[in-house]
Write a structure and sequence with these properties.
Immunoglobulin-like; four-stranded antiparallel beta sheet; about 350 residues; five-stranded mixed beta sheet; mainly beta; single chain
């Protein structure tokens, strides 16, 4: 018998070419192709460490080093862990032996959803290991939106829009700091905690810090304790509300009397003030209505002023604005108890 090697798995016997499926000339098995792109699944390797951390509606995936591993492929599933490199959705494939990469972000995921990740490892011989690493993580709830904060008497009023994925068991939590924005429930001071689908809250202070800028962080918390990414809102905390009174009703001649008395040391914060009113809604700034009175550049501790030319048959919304040393116009809204009203006269708010 005359044998000669013509190629891998190909022999010549008495001049006849024979193709042998899995055996070479010496009878040793040749690496067969598999469903993994021609890479056989071999025995276990020492897998790199593998972790997943939810950051909003994204997931940070991180891995360590392994001398056994040349390349990693991460796949994502929503109903269970992928068991091969063809199952689930591809997240990333990295040659960790040369790239130096140790993490990636899986972006644009759905909120409040449990995701399953599998890390498949390839050894230096381009063989996938038979073992693989798994982690799972649930993405965070959506944050609130449309946050607006205003000074209102000796408290701050916030309003916001609940996220579309909000449920009855959620809570909205607000924390405040005069330093950095709180990034968790251990930083800053607790200011407010209310039902997740609540859209407004009155926040009362007890620290006595006025004329100060506060940094607020608004969180959505699920019943399981997961927190949304915080929404940051910075606002100047106005000094104590001055005593601002309306005396009497609007007379038939269209006259209304205002009285103003400052808190102690208010002149240390303010340099002048103005009164703005209209018949539509409470003014938010001086351009929202007519300036009924302005002290120009003088801050007065008290005054009486008469506004004439009003229509006593209409409802008027009046607001006092104090201007501080940095030219910030700070709006104040009197409580209902500060209004004078009779059954024959429309209410003034």
């Amino acid at each position: 018998m005359n044998k000669c090697r013509l190629g891998v798995g190909v022999f010549c016997v008495f001049g006849i070419v024979i193709l042998v499926g899995l055996l070479g000339c010496n009878g040793i098995a040749v690496k067969p192709p598999t469903g993994d792109g021609g890479n056989v699944v071999t025995s276990n390797v020492t897998l790199p460490s593998f972790s997943a951390t939810a950051t909003g509606q994204s997931v940070l995936l991180a891995w360590g080093a392994s001398s056994d591993v040349k390349l990693i492929a991460i796949r994502r599933g929503t109903s269970g862990y992928p068991t091969t490199v063809h199952e689930g959705d591809a997240v990333v494939t990295v040659n960790i032996a040369t790239s130096g990469a140790s993490s990636t972000m899986d972006l644009n995921l759905s909120p409040r959803t449990l995701y399953y990740y599998s890390l498949f490892a390839m050894d230096v011989h381009d063989h996938y290991a038979s073992n693989y690493a798994i982690v799972n993580v649930r993405t965070l709830p959506l944050p609130v939106s449309g946050v607006v904060g205003t000074n209102d008497l000796e408290k701050v009023r916030f309003s916001w829009t609940s996220p579309p994925d909000s449920v009855d068991t959620d809570r909205v939590i607000i924390r405040a700091s005069t330093l950095l924005f709180p990034e968790n429930l251990q930083e800053g001071s607790a200011i407010f905690s209310g039902a997740g689908q609540q859209t407004t809250g009155n926040l009362y202070f007890d620290d006595g810090n006025y004329a100060t800028t506060y940094n607020y962080s608004i969180f959505v918390q699920t019943a399981a304790g997961a927190l949304s990414k915080p929404v940051h809102y910075s606002m100047y905390r106005a000094p104590l509300f001055p005593y601002f009174l309306f005396f009497g009703e609007i007379s038939e001649s269209g006259e209304l009397t205002f009285s103003f008395n400052s808190r102690l040391n208010a002149g240390n914060y303010f340099k002048n003030f103005l009164i703005v009113g209209n018949t539509n809604a409470r003014p938010q700034n001086r351009s929202d209505g007519e300036v009924y009175f302005s002290s120009a550049t003088e801050y007065r501790a008290s005054f009486f002023v008469h506004k004439t030319g009003l229509d006593y048959t209409k409802k008027y919304y009046v607001r006092l604005f104090l201007v501080d040393k940095n030219d910030r116009e700070i709006p104040y809204s009197p409580d209902d108890s500060f209004f004078s009203d009779t059954s024959s006269t429309p209410a003034i708010n």
